[in-house]
Amino acid sequence: xxxxxxxxxxxxxxxxxxxxxxxxxxxxxxxxxxxxxxxxxxxxxxxxxxxxxxxxxxxxxxxxxxxxxxxxxxxxxxxxxxxxxxxxxxxxxxxxxxxxxxxxxxxxxxxxxxxxxxxxxxxxxxxxxxxxxxxxxxxxxxxxxxxxxxxxxxxxxxxxxxxxxxxxxxxxxxxxxxxxxxxxxxxxxxxxxxxxxxxxxxxxxxxxxxxxxxxxxxxxxxxxxxxxxxxxxxxxxxxxxxxxxxxxxxxxxxxxxxxxxxxxxxxxxxxxxxxxxxxxxxxxxxxxxxxxxxxxxxxxxxxxxxxxxxxxxxxxxxxxxxxxxxxxxxxxxxxxxxxxxxxxxxxxxxxxxxxxxxxxxxxxxxxxxxxxxxxxxxxxxxxxxxxxxxxxxxxxxxxxxxxxxxxxxxxxxxxxxxxxxxxxxxxxxxxxxxxxxxxxxxxxxxxxxxxxxxxxxxx
Length: 459
Hints:
The chain is mostly helical and 459 residues long. 75% of the residues lie in helices and 1% in strands.
């Protein structure tokens, strides 16, 4: 029986993709990744638009987690403390670019019935797909490393747990993933949305305490030529833009949209693409709100007080209490950071599973996959923390972002190429205007990441 159409046999006409949609692939679509969650969330076939949309809300919020990781926190803190509200436009622009690329992930997952990892496996020979798999695994390990460090810093700020111990404690989050998976995918989505709500609430309270200049905030979302006149401002703008898209998010989103049982007809898939794109766009707007809140908080506190060189997370935490005259603000900052780390744990686990199953068609127990990935991230974090202390941990966080930047082209370029191919996508091929916009977006992000990597390598 087909998972999306339980009443029809697998070879019935409603479940056979049009021949035109298959000519671009080297082989037929295999078993889906995340098989235990595939098409398990029911969708509304009839009813109001809001009722239909409600069934698709969820995957976008898991994707949004990747746009507010500790690496993004660092660039937003640095931009706000140094230049006030001026870089809010850059945060807005980066979010629009992310919406474009994530919409392609939705189109690929629903229209082609493949996540990005499966699409690479079914499009390229093994001598190409295996290096792409290795690149994706490196990106996930780097992502996990950032989560380990961010969570450990959050534990240190909240409970004064030494970073070395905090890094080791993060290994226990594997049990959180297992517990949530046992209840179903909607529980995972619910946990992530709850954590995002806590993060948003924490920053809302901090911003209310900071009392920013709202007129300047609104002006900050408008473009300014100062970015090109000031080299330091330009560099921070490049940092915010370049760290926008995480490679694992592209694999993750194209797999998560298939957790919905939307049906197999062309009309049902078109509607699913529309609703899932709305979901991700709403979620990414929430990510923009949180990232902008970090920058606004930095501008209203550090920049206003003349502290223009704040970039480290522990440094930002320490300055909040004396600047705002309250011990509540730094506590909320630490809680938000810890919630961010817990959320990222879930998305890294799922993306790792999608990548391994999609590229290799290899299925292992989720707890084993999670434990191996987390151990690979924990070992360097523990060694560096013990050897050189907390400052080196911050440097390791920066290095993880550089590694992610290096892997980005190997995910973005195939995504744009697949969704632009009528032979692969059939009636769900991306419109020409969207392909052009996505190609320009990909070129800009890759160029900015290349510059950031070069600056890092050249010191």
